[in-house]
Design goal:
alpha/beta; 2 domains; six-stranded mixed β-sheet; four-stranded mixed β-sheet; globular
C-alpha cells in the first residue's frame, strides 16, 4: 500500500502541544509564586491561573492527538498493512485527515473513538456503554451529527482532489471507522459505511470495484499536493 504522510504537520502540532503545556505550567507556577510574594495582586493572579489552565489543557488535548503513540494515522496504517500498490492512503493532506484510494473507489476515513456498542435505528445513531469503575455508569447516548460530519469531510476531500486534478471527475464517499478496541459495531442499513478498525481491511477488499484513481493518477495527485 502506498502511504503519504504530512510529516511536517505532525511535527508542527507535536511541538506546539509541548510548548503550550510548558507555557501553561510556567503561568501556573508563576501565579503560585506571586501569591506568596505579592498577595495584593489577586486579580492578576487569578487571570494567570485561568490562562495557564486553559493553555495547558489545550496543549494536552493537542498532545493526545499528535504526540501520543500510536497516532490515529498509525492505527490506520497498521490496520491496512499488507494491501498492494493499488491502494493508497493519505494522512493530513486531502482536506480530510485520512483518505483512502482503492479499486473500490475513493474514501474519506472518519475515525471515531466511542467505545460502547454502536447501533443505528430509525435515522439515529446510538452508543450503549457499560459501567466502568466508580465514575462511569452504564447507559445510552445519542451520537449526534456524525453522519453529517462524515459526509461533509467527503465533500471537502472531493473538492481538494478536484483542485489538484481538475481533469478528474471522481466521487468521494465516507467510511466511519470506530478505532477503540472496546467498541462493538452493530450497524445495519446505515446511510454511511461503518466498520470497526479490525475489520477495515477485509471490508475494503470486499467492496465492489467502481470508478477510482489508477496508479498514475495517484502519483500525480501526490505530487500535486506536495509529496
Amino acid at each position: 500500500m502506498r502511504q503519504y504522510m504530512n510529516q511536517r504537520k505532525v511535527k508542527l502540532y507535536n511541538k506546539l502541544s509541548q510548548a503550550m503545556i510548558l507555557i501553561g505550567l510556567i503561568l501556573l507556577i508563576g501565579a503560585l509564586v506571586l501569591s506568596f510574594t505579592h498577595p495584593e495582586t489577586m486579580n492578576q493572579l487569578l487571570i494567570g491561573v485561568i490562562v495557564g489552565t486553559l493553555v495547558s489543557q489545550a496543549g494536552l488535548a493537542l498532545n493526545n492527538r499528535w504526540g501520543r503513540q500510536p497516532r490515529i494515522d498509525q492505527i490506520f496504517d497498521g490496520s491496512l498493512k499488507g494491501l498492494d500498490n493499488r491502494y493508497a492512503i493519505f494522512h493530513y493532506k486531502l482536506g480530510t485527515s485520512h483518505a483512502l484510494i482503492c479499486p473500490a473507489g475513493v474514501y474519506a476515513l472518519i475515525p471515531r473513538q466511542d467505545d460502547g456498542e454502536i447501533t443505528y435505528a430509525e435515522g439515529k445513531w446510538w452508543e450503549q456503554f457499560r459501567k466502568r469503575g466508580l465514575f462511569r455508569r452504564s447507559g445510552r447516548k445519542r451520537l449526534n451529527r456524525i453522519e453529517d460530519h462524515a459526509k461533509a469531510q467527503a465533500r471537502i476531500m472531493q473538492q481538494s482532489i478536484q483542485k489538484a486534478l481538475p481533469e478528474t471527475d471522481i466521487s468521494v464517499r465516507p467510511i466511519l471507522v470506530f478505532i477503540s478496541k472496546d467498541a462493538l459495531v452493530k450497524v445495519d442499513h446505515a446511510p454511511v459505511l461503518t466498520v470497526h478498525i479490525k475489520k477495515l481491511k477485509s471490508v475494503v477488499r470486499r467492496l465492489p470495484k467502481v470508478k477510482s484513481l489508477d496508479a498514475v493518477e495517484i502519483e500525480h495527485l501526490a505530487k500535486a499536493v506536495g509529496f
